[in-house]
């Protein structure tokens, strides 16, 4: 059986060794592969699961996706202890070591630039939920609402609730905007992820802000304190902090506003390893 | 209230980063994950599995 190469991250040469038993996505150990003064962290994965077709099928299997994502994160987590990794997107797979080396060669400058930009930084995730604390008070009656006696009762109650919701919604938006402004001013960079669906997270309340902040590791404590201080500012709002993460959300290409003149008219070629680099190695 | 969620990293938080973040490199074997499509597929699967356990409020009403 042939093994493919799953790449987790690229980083600068490690000053401390990777932990000995660092298990990757398919149970195989993750190891450094050095090339051109950079390190790709790689593990062997079976072709039967990670070739294009089976991978595509697996990615729609949530249990498989969850296990793979957690294993990927486990490797990245271990790396962040010893270095600042440039995390790759889930399921970046090469045929063999020489494919990984070609990738490093083709993207060397870009990788180095990004590593410089991220050096010593971590990502913090901040989510704001607004919880429906006032819905019970929203009705005219002070008593707990009985079951609706009729469809009309039900609709009337819904209308009252939706008015109350609108007020809360505006408050939530104002709260989230203010918090995001405050945290953005502190952070070096920010990314907004789409709000999470409550049905997915099982979290109480509605997610109104799902943001990532790039913060120097040395300033992390201050950042966490900044978040903590805002938590009780506003009733009905819940703030959740996750992290520190490797800088996943900031590992992509530099934001377009920083290099507007370089953006080509056509779809940007996201595979610089493709045409130009081929055949000249 | 959030104790349960914080026991381990929530899968959605992880997927926000692993499927939409990270450097996108075309491997020589495999697909580059088409982020939007993939996330939509997976989240839909998640939603439908979650929804199976959460009856819509309208069902209760219709029964009356």
Automatic annotation (TrEMBL), chain B:
Family (UniProt): Belongs to the gas vesicle GvpA family.
Keywords associated with the record: Gas vesicle
A Pfam family it matches: Gas_vesicle
Signal peptide: none
The keyword Manganese is annotated on this UniProt entry: no
Keyword Repressor attached: no
Name the record gives this protein: Gas vesicle protein
Major location category of this protein: other
Localization per record: Gas vesicle
